[in-house]
């Protein structure tokens, strides 16, 4: 069984948002697109669907973006895959929307075993949380260039003569 590229990208988006979650920052589509080198158009569809099902929250405007709707430890990988993956038919006869011409269909037990295998696969994914999916958050954040607002903002320092707060920019 192979998951679609759409599911792969959906998992990547959710992992990116999980890395941003501790800081409370939102992530923009452009930011995620640059980090993963994924088309903005693909990401727009994914972000829209994830917000429709309540896995993420989105805000519009200058300070807008997306963030997880729940903590990463409360979201299972199985839940994400079920949202993204539309078809778990391993063989043609599993797909109820497609006519099949298998002569042995009524007596075939393979289709039931495939169905059970898919269910076992999803149950296994249900045991892994989004938080657990990222084994080394600091390494992942560094690789993707995930930076919190606090890390981007210049820290204030005291002026040596006046003692008033100034930004680091004023010291150079």
Any chance you could write out the topology, listing elements then pairs?
Blueprint: H1 5-20, H2 29-36, H3 40-52, E1 56-59, E2 65-68, H4 77-84, H5 110-126, H6 137-144, H7 149-152, E3 156-158, E4 165-167, H8 168-171
Antiparallel strand pairs: 1-2, 3-4
Shape: elongated
Using the CA coordinates, give the radius of gyration.
22 Å
Record field, number of beta strands: 4
User: What topology, given as strand order, has the largest sheet?
Assistant: 1-2
Query: Poorly predicted ranges (pLDDT <50, ≥5 residues)?
Result: none
For the largest beta-sheet, the strand count, sense and barrel status come to:
2 strands, antiparallel
Report how far apart the termini are: 57 Å
Q: What is the N-to-C succession of helices and strands?
A: HHHEEHHHHEEH
Portion of residues within helices? 40-55%
Return the structural class: mainly alpha
Count of separate DSSP helical elements: 8
- Summed over residues and divided by their number, the pLDDT gives a mean of 86
- Beta-strand percentage range: 5-15%
Q: Would you kindly provide a written description of the structure presented here, covering whatever features stand out?
A:
The chain is mainly α and 172 residues long. The chain is 45% helix and 8% strand. The strands form 2 sheets. A two-stranded antiparallel sheet has the order 1-2. Strand 3 and strand 4 form a beta hairpin. The radius of gyration is 22 Å and the shape is elongated. The N and C termini lie far apart (57 Å). The mean pLDDT is 86.
């Amino acid at each position: 069984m192979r998951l679609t590229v759409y599911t792969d990208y959906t998992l990547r988006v959710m992992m990116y948002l999980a890395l941003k979650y501790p800081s409370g920052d939102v992530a923009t589509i452009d930011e995620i697109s640059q980090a993963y080198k994924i088309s903005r158009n693909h990401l727009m569809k994914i972000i829209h669907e994830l917000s429709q099902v309540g896995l993420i929250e989105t805000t519009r405007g200058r300070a807008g973006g997306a963030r997880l709707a729940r903590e990463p430890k409360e979201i299972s990988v199985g839940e994400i895959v079920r949202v993204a993956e539309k078809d778990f038919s391993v063989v043609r006869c599993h797909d109820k929307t497609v006519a099949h011409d298998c002569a042995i269909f009524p007596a075939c037990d393979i289709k039931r075993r495939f169905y059970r295998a898919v269910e076992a696969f999803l149950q296994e994914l249900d045991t892994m949380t989004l938080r657990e999916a990222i084994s080394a958050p600091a390494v992942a954040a560094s690789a993707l260039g995930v930076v919190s607002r606090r890390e981007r903002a210049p820290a204030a320092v005291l002026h040596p003569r006046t003692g008033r707060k100034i930004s680091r920019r004023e010291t150079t």
